[in-house]
Design goal:
78 residues; 4 strands
């Protein structure tokens, strides 16, 4: 397996954000891409922490929320 660094993870999340926006799941991918945080975990340097903020699309309103993506790219709403 290839080594994964923060830039690779950031690029993969940006691709996901584009797909989410194209399907109307999030309001805009630009907000997510500009504001995501991808960093090496201080306690465990083998772990990359990711915080992926999104503005979800809604039928009657836009909800502000934050989605965290774990290393398996499972999505957890916070």
């Amino acid at each position: 397996a290839d080594a994964i660094d923060t830039d690779m993870v950031r690029a993969r999340i940006a691709t996901l954000a584009g797909q989410w926006a194209s399907r109307g799941w999030i309001y805009t991918d630009g907000y997510t891409i500009e504001n995501m945080i991808v960093s090496i975990n201080d306690a465990n340097p083998d772990r990359i922490d990711k915080t992926v903020p999104v503005i979800l699309s809604g039928n009657n309103r836009i909800e502000d929320t934050e989605v965290q993506v774990d290393r398996n790219l499972a999505i957890v709403e916070v």
